[in-house]
From TrEMBL:
This is Histone deacetylase domain-containing protein. Its cofactor is Zn(2+). InterPro entries: HDAC_classIV (IPR044150), HDACs (IPR000286), His_deacetylse_dom (IPR023801), His_deacetylse_dom_sf (IPR037138), Ureohydrolase_dom_sf (IPR023696). CDD domains: HDAC_classIV. It comes from Camellia sinensis var. sinensis (China tea). Keywords: Chromatin regulator, Hydrolase, Repressor. The keyword Repressor applies. The lineage of its organism: Eukaryota, Viridiplantae, Streptophyta, Embryophyta, Tracheophyta.
Amino acid sequence: MSTMASSSTGVSSSTDSETLRRNRILSSKLYFDVPLSKLPLIYSPSYNIQFLGIEKLHPFDSSKWGRICRFLIVDGVLDKNRIVEPPEATKDDLLVVHSESYLNSLKSSVNVSIIVEVPPVALLPNFLVQQKVLHPFRKQVGGSILAAKLAKERGWAINVGGGFHHCSGDKGGGFCVYADISLCIQYAFTRLNISRVMIIDLDAHQGNGHEKDFSRDRRVYILDIYNPGIYPLDYEARRYISQKVEVVSGTETEEYLTKLDEALKVAGRMFDPELVVYNAGTDILDGDPLGRLKLLELYIMRVQLDTVAFSFAQTNPYCTFEFHTSLELSKNPEFLLSSLHHQIRMDWCGSSVPRTSEYSFSLPLVKISPDGITARDEKVFRFAHERNVPLLMLTSGGYMKSSARIIADSIVNLSKKGLIDTLGSTGKV
Ligand SMILES: [Zn+2]
């Protein structure tokens, strides 16, 4: 992290803050020249969060990014020497979108634990949280930002990570600590001479982070297809979506793809983008082995929450915890499995500002098949390809054990269909 003082206090006019932002972007080291021997496929082993088994405490596969690459290498569509490793986003890079006070709030392990939804993180010293949790995310942010430059140069780019669409400049949540989408677009505006960007957000959840950040920015068109009945339920941010398509729980592949076709047609009529940012979350997948596995994870999570609550109550007598569970998790597994959405709400009372965190567990919500994911990605890439518009893809949400395989399969399909060229002009892997 940069130690350069970069306080924005005292900057009163928007012109000054615009100049400051511009200078930060222009002096950033995230845009570096990538030789043609490399592919526009961005990944670093440090994307993966693995630390003292913490990764097992979240019902997420926090090493899916590495597994995607391994599958691609085994399948023969990727040579690991041709992967681009991004630099880590520094504090100055993050300040392009984030407020100083938000970044400072991440010096509290409790705050980070709420954002990443892993309660035990609250108990770790912050230097470990920085190193083991936030560093991987900052590398992924570096990847998302670089992806725009590579997409402009090569026509396409994939960051095998990123897509933290719930985070805005001043607020994180839902596993999203940094607003990589907003950052990537601001860099593209300044460094790539681009003035019209389309975000196609097909993660199951609403992308409230970028929606808030670009609420008044007409240079950005947002198509968001999401399930309206689940996290983040951000009604204010919904007003900033240019084209919103709501898919209710239980929507199946054919209906979903038809809606996507229609939405892309409308988007293409309404807006002429110079860059497409595709947030390709795979949490719309039908839930396969989710059933029993998920149930076990819910039990584990419940124990974790109780443990954290207990230790907080012990160390701070003014701190009381209340758990509101929308479902009685332990009593009725059948109801649990058939239900579509579960939240454990954890209210942190007794400190100066009460904080509320939602722990969301998604059971099958939108029931898209693996082939449906492949078809979906192909449609979006084709949309950009036909218009000759550069596209960058971020993998975003979807952390079931099966997600990595499905994402890899979809990338293989894009390569087979000639929508991306993973073998490069030199041909040989
Ligand atoms: Zn999601």
